[in-house]
Amino acid sequence: MHSETAVAANAPAATKLPAARPPRPSTRPNGQWKIDGTEPLNGNEVWKQIDNGLAVRGRIEEIYSKQGFDSIDGTDLHGRFRWWGLYTQRKPGIDGGRTATLEPEELEDRYFMLRVRIDGGQLTTEQTRVIGEVSRDFGRDTADITDRQNIQLHWIQIEDMPEIWRRLEAVGLETTQACGDVPRVFLGSPVAGIAADELIDPTEAIAEIARKYLGTDEFANLPRKFKTAITGHPSQDVVHEINDIGLVAVDHPELGIGYDLWVGGALSTTPRLAERLGAFVAEDRVSEVWRGVTSIFRDYGYRRLRGKARLKFLLAEWGTEKFRRILEDEYLGYPLPDGPAAPRPKTQGDHIGVHKQKDGRFYIGVAPFVGRVSGQTLIRLADLLESYGSSRLRTTPHQKIVVLDVAEEHVEPLIAALDEIGLSARPSLFRRSTVACTGIEFCKLAIVETKQTATDAILELEQRLATIEAPHPITLHVNGCPNSCARIQAADIGLKGQLLPDGNGGSTPGFQVHLGGGLASVDREEAGLGRTVRGLKVTAENLTDYVERLVLRFLAARSADETFAQWAHRADEEDLK
């Protein structure tokens, strides 16, 4: 990343991203079904064609839950289980230095992470209570709100899955295609249908896609995961720039309000921001356009090498003009109207704090510590909301919770009560804007611990920086490995977990630092990735000292309207260390 030389009121422009390059020309097929045929070119593609994963539920209920962990077929365990939201979790006591050296069966425990799928983040208090009870009864009281609006539980045993599914499905929840090479959870605006400044409510569009395509064979075997984000709120609150397909509300000067279409975003180790196709999608066309883009990925996506099996690599080869032409000619059968880009957001997209609803009541956005709650907390939250006359809440793509339908006279009493159970409506600078992935506590890919490291840093920074006034939230994203589940390249301060030399011939947990990344927001004109500085790494032990030093340098050196991202991109390397 180059440093910016000009400081302006707008955030730094997005840097052109060559990272997600298409495969080099080769005589070998890439596994694109419409070009190369459907012959499987690797082991994953073989077993997906034999059984794409949906059928494994029957085996879980009829065989594995009755005969126990040792009865599970290896391909089911390490592959098809994901189609139902199940991953084996990391065995305790295995340090990060062994992550890349051990086989999956050496790293994994006999317990599972279970991901509860929550499309649009929409929950009732009854559903929240049931998730809490499942956590309490089967998951050692664990519960993490993810940055994709799901809730993850841990310590789940295969023997308990039939009862867990029975409880979840009795209240309209599911784990269907929460993981795997499928359309993952559909991100939706956490304030859909309630915000006074909403342009369009995407709730029915998301529900229609789920009704038609979730749990069906049509998209049960994609090249890899496929991520969707749809918002009708002007804050652009669903991180659409890093999803495979994004639909963002826009007011067309002739056609009225609909959606601006984006495709091909994803981070991981080869980040690429999504691109606009310049096409306008009417409200009643959302489902068929979503189907068209997803079908392109199914039919043209690269399947030979899993490291290249994301839509961003196909977009890098085709470009937006060809992608739109294929979508219209081969999948829709009609041209999409040209449309304008959505304007820059005017409000923060995390929805923290108190906001008026269109019906005169209020919604309140609250922050736990990096998404970590518990089963008991969820139960208490449900009880608390009902006692104040509310029965609805939402999870957010920022590991937060938004509670809905609060009468004005109940706002302050409810805020005080939420704070008592660890959910703050007026959080500190870093409690508000810190995100952390699962980390080495449960994840088999992780190298370092994240959740507790981030929480400890927040608590210490709350004391050290209590008297400062930051001009805007400063995002701190903590990731346990290079895969960027916590979106490290799109944060003001992004931390990629790795082991660093300890000076005594050994190693210590630490992070490579990315600075100045971010997505479109009230403080930023458009998305761009963070800057890396050669040798800029920080140990977990020194993390709090580093963040404090960096924030104070920014506040001392910034010009009048300069954001942290602008400063981080123009600052001398020595000022960032």
Automatic annotation (TrEMBL):
UniProt xrefs under InterPro entries: NIR_SIR_4Fe-4S, NiRdtase/SiRdtase_haem-b_fer, Nit/Sulf_reduc_fer-like_dom_sf, NO2/SO3_Rdtase_4Fe4S_dom, NO2/SO3_Rdtase_4Fe4S_sf, NO2/SO3_Rdtase_FeS/sirohaem_BS
Domain Nitrite/sulphite reductase 4Fe-4S residues, every copy: 180-333, 432-574
Protein keywords: 4Fe-4S, Heme, Iron, Iron-sulfur, Metal-binding, Oxidoreductase, Thioether bond
Matching PROSITE patterns: NIR_SIR
Catalytic activity as recorded in UniProt: hydrogen sulfide + 6 oxidized [2Fe-2S]-[ferredoxin] + 3 H2O = sulfite + 6 reduced [2Fe-2S]-[ferredoxin] + 7 H(+)
GO molecular function: 4 iron, 4 sulfur cluster binding; heme binding; metal ion binding; sulfite reductase (ferredoxin) activity
Location of the region described as Disordered in the Swiss-Prot/TrEMBL record: 1-40
Enzymatic class: oxidoreductase
Domain (Nitrite/Sulfite reductase ferredoxin-like) ranges: 109-171, 355-420
Enzyme Commission code: 1.8.7.1
Spans through the membrane: none
Lineage top rank: taxon: Bacteria
Ranges annotated as biased composition (Low complexity): 1-19
CC cofactor: [4Fe-4S] cluster
Role, per record: Catalyzes the reduction of sulfite to sulfide, a step in the biosynthesis of sulfur-containing amino acids and cofactors.
PANTHER family: FERREDOXIN--NITRITE REDUCTASE, CHLOROPLASTIC
Entry's family note: Belongs to the nitrite and sulfite reductase 4Fe-4S domain family.
Name of this protein: assimilatory sulfite reductase (ferredoxin)
